[in-house]
Amino acid sequence: MSASRTRVALMGATGSIGTQTLDVLRREPDRFELVSLAGGRRLAELAAIVSEFRVRRVAVNDDAARRELAPLVDPGVEVVTGDAGLRELASDADVVVNAVMGFAGLPVTLATLEAGSRLALANKESLVAAAPVVARVRSTPGAEIWPVDSEHCAIHQCLAGSTRTGHPDVAKLWVTASGGPFRGWSAQRLRGVTKAEALAHPTWSMGPKITIDSSTLMNKGLEVLEASALFEIEVDRIDVVVHPTSVVHSMVEYVDGSVLAQLSRPDMRLPIAYCLGAPTRLAHHWGRLDFSQSLHLAFEPPDRDAFPALDLAYAAARRAGAAPAWLSAANEVAVEAFLEDRIAWSDIVAVVAATMDHYEDDPLDSVEAVVENDARARRIAHGNLPS
Ligand code: NDP
Ligand code: MG
Question: Does the C-beta of 336 come closer than 6 Å to ligand 1?
Answer without folding.
Answer: no
